[in-house]
Every structure is written in C-alpha cells, then in structure tokens.
C-alpha cells in the first residue's frame, strides 16, 4: 500500500459530493451499542480507519457484528467476554485507538467494571481524559492504575446519580458520562455539558432505547436512571468537518461544487464563518451550492478592525475547521487573525504553507495572521508530510489550488478521518493519485 498522494494543482473542479457520516458521532454511537443486549441497527457509518478499528474491537469483545450494506451494520452485545479486557490484544488495540475510551462509560454502566489501557492518539496537544474519569468518580466509580500492566481497572458496581459540573465541556467526556449515567440509580445532572449535534444525536438515540434524558441541546442535562435499555435504529448525521472542508475546497480552487444532503440546520455557525471570508454559498433544498468564484473578500468587523476567527465549544466554531479557514484565507482579499484557543500545536503546519508561498505570520502557538493573496499569486506545489488529520486535509486543499505538483506523505493520517478522499476528489475532476 502506497503512502502518499501526488496532486497536480491549479485546476477548477466541478460536480456533486456527498459528505460521509460524522466520524465523531460514530465513535460515540458505536460505543453505545454496549448498553443493551438487544439488536442495534446503525446506518451512514463512515468507512474510515478509526471507526473500522472500533467496529473490529467491538467484535473482539463478543459483539455480533453484521454488515448489511456499505454503510449500515447491526450490532448485538448480548454475550460480552469480560475477560477480553485484561488481554494483550485489548492492550494493543485499545491503546492505539483514542476512541476506545468511549467504551468505558457503557461497560461501567452495564457490567459494573472495566479495564482500559492508557490511551494514545493524535498529536494535537494535551488532550486530557480527566473529564471522563472525574465524571465516573462522581457517579461512584473507583479507579486503580496498575503500573505493571499499564491498565486502569475501574470498579463501578454501585453507580449513583449525582450533580456533576464538568471541568471542561468535552464532547467525548460528556458522552461517556451520559452513557454511564443512563443506567445509574437515581438522577444525574450534568452542567457544562457539551451540546454538539453529535451529542444531541447520542442522547436522542439513548432516549429511543428507553433512557430518560432531558435538556438535550443545552449545557444542562438531566438523566433519570433506568434499569435497562432496548435496541433501536439510528442514522448518523453527515460530517460537518467534511462539509466545511468542501466549502473551503470550492472557494480555494474557484470551483462550482454542490455538497449533498448536509442537514443544514445542524451546521450551526459554520456556513456563516465561511460567508465572513467572502465565500458565496446558497442552500438548495438540503444541499449547499457553491458557485465558482474568481475572488472572495474577507469582511472586517463593523468598526473596520481585522476579522478574528476563533474556535469555541459548540455552538461556537469547531476547532476542527480552523485549519481549513486558515488555508482558505490565503487566497482571500483582506486579512484575518486565526485564534486557536482550544488546542496547542494545531497550527504547526503553517510552515508548509509558507513554503508554498502563503503570507502568514505565526504569532504564537495559538494565533496566526493570514494576509490574503487575492489570487494575485498562486501557491506552488511542494513535498510535505501531514502532521494530523485536519492539517492533512488543509494541506490537500492548498495543494489542489497550487501551481504544479505536490506530494503529501503520511496520508494515513488523512484517511483516519476522510473516507476514499482521493476517489471522491477524482470524481470532481481533481488530478490526485496514490504513489
């Protein structure tokens, strides 16, 4: 299997593209199948490495997994092998997959115990798991870290509902605590809960399974514990990060692209942020149509000062799209300050963009000022390596807009988040191939 994309850039693209199912939702929803012994049918599952690894892990622990078609599976967790969680296979597979921490909440809730290896994952700064563990502890779980085996052993034989104020509005942390709380005794209140659409989807699905969660969509969730949950069907939302990436791609390459079935009402502030960069987009039914644009001009604030785009917990702008916004701003008219508040080291791919001819001032690890070229100068193709999933796609967009040939190495980082991205771009007319 080759490990690089070769891209000949500078060509406008045209056509329709369908966003995959949401990766971040998939990791939560798939973990939730462990909460019941009944059959679950899940559709619009993205065919990407992180998700496929989690499905494989569910199979290893005894879940009956059946693939009905390309994106639809059934899961039945009626015979889980609890000894599996102390095995070397689990240490190796669970340790390499950041999303594996999401199975802890459901396991604690249903079986009263779990073991998890110390997690690994993306290099985007210190993503702590404290929120998860502190939440479980408040519900009454007891943790014991075994330095010899590298496992956390958790005893949760008597989970009790309680008031929990999360130290940060972590999406995965909130999801994990919610899944533990639905089968706890009594009432749990979670304040400073994340309220991303993915989390709303999870809560709605749990309610269909028989959970009693209220406050969905707000930062205050109330969960009345129940004794058991049943099976249900669920369809994932389209991935908003992909949708944002494709809006950026269209603008940067001057292409006419239609993004299909976007669930526009679930996109929050995302379309508006791209409009602030001067990108025209129109809603046609539930599709976003982006016309081919020669130029797009960044708005200023009302008093004329430079536009700042910063990330924030939902309903603020998702940090996963800041790198896309940064790249798209390179060819805008005007300047913008990109402020990455939520993670450190997410801007460390800027040096590659400078090599391509972008005008960017990296102020510090969290802030970069982009001085738009207004398409007066084309970026030039270079060889580069992708540091993480989101930066990888941003570099891919830059390469597609650049003059000449670019090579992007370490593309498995991109493929962890975007399914068959090369084939889907080829269908729009992109000159991209594996080498």
TrEMBL record:
The keyword Cytoplasm applies. Pathway: Cell wall biogenesis; peptidoglycan biosynthesis. It catalyses: phosphoenolpyruvate + UDP-N-acetyl-alpha-D-glucosamine = UDP-N-acetyl-3-O-(1-carboxyvinyl)-alpha-D-glucosamine + phosphate. It is found in: Cytoplasm. GO terms for cellular component: cytoplasm. InterPro entries: Enolpyruvate_Tfrase_dom, Enolpyruvate_Tfrase_sf, MurA_subfamily, RNA3'P_cycl/enolpyr_Trfase_a/b, UDP_GlcNAc_COvinyl_MurA. Residues 9-423 form the Enolpyruvate transferase domain. It is an enzyme of class 2 (transferase). Its main location: cytoplasm. One of its GO terms (molecular function) is UDP-N-acetylglucosamine 1-carboxyvinyltransferase activity. Its EC number is 2.5.1.7. Phosphoenolpyruvate binds at residues 23-24. Keywords: Cell cycle, Cell division, Cell shape, Cell wall biogenesis/degradation, Cytoplasm, Peptidoglycan synthesis, Transferase. UDP-N-acetyl-alpha-D-glucosamine binds at residues 98, 320, 342. One of its GO terms (biological process) is regulation of cell shape. The active site is at 122 (proton donor). Belongs to the EPSP synthase family. MurA subfamily. Cell wall formation. Adds enolpyruvyl to UDP-N-acetylglucosamine. This is UDP-N-acetylglucosamine 1-carboxyvinyltransferase. It comes from Mucilaginibacter mali.
């Amino acid at each position: 299997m080759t490990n690089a994309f070769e891209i000949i850039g500078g060509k406008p693209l045209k056509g329709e593209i369908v966003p995959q199912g949401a990766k971040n939702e998939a990791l939560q929803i798939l973990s939730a199948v462990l909460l019941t012994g009944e059959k679950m049918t899940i559709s619009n599952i993205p065919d990407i490495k992180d998700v496929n690894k989690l499905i494989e892990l569910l199979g290893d622990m005894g879940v009956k997994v059946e693939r009905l078609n390309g994106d639809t599976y059934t899961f039945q967790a009626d015979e889980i092998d609890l000894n599996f969680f102390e095995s070397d296979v689990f240490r190796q597979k669970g340790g390499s997959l950041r999303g594996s921490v999401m199975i802890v909440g459901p396991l604690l809730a249903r079986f009263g115990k779990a073991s998890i290896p110390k997690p690994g994952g993306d290099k985007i700064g210190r993503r702590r798991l404290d929120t998860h563990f502190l939440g479980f502890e408040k519900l009454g779980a007891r943790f014991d870290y075994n330095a010899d085996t590298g496992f956390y052993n958790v005893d949760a034989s008597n989970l009790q509902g309680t008031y929990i104020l999360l130290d940060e509005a972590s999406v995965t942390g909130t999801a994990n605590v919610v899944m533990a709380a639905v089968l706890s005794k009594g009432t749990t209140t979670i304040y400073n809960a994340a309220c991303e659409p993915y989390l709303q989807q999870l809560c709605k699905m749990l309610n269909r399974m028989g959970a009693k969660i209220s406050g969905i969509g707000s930062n205050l969730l109330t969960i009345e514990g129940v004794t058991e949950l049943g099976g249900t069907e669920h369809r994932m939302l389209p991935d908003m990060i992909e949708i944002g990436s494709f809006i950026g791609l269209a603008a940067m390459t001057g292409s006419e692209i239609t993004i299909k079935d976007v669930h526009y009402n679930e996109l929050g502030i995302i379309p508006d942020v791209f409009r602030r960069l001067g990108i025209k987009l129109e809603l046609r039914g539930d599709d976003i149509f982006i016309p081919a644009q020669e130029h797009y001009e960044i708005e200023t604030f009302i008093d004329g000062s430079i536009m700042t785009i910063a990330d924030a917990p939902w309903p603020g702008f998702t940090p996963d799209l800041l790198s896309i916004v940064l790249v798209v701003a390179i060819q805008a008219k005007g300047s913008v300050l990109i402020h990455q508040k939520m993670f450190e080291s997410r801007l460390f791919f800027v040096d590659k963009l400078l090599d391509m001819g972008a005008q960017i001032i990296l102020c510090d690890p969290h802030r970069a000022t982009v001085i738009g070229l207004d398409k007066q100068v084309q970026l030039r193709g270079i060889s580069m390596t992708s540091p993480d999933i989101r930066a990888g796609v941003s570099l891919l967009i830059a390469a597609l807009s650049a003059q000449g040939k670019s090579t992007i190495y370490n593309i498995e980082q991109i493929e962890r988040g975007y399914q068959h991205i090369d084939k889907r771009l080829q269908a729009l007319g992109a000159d991209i191939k594996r080498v």
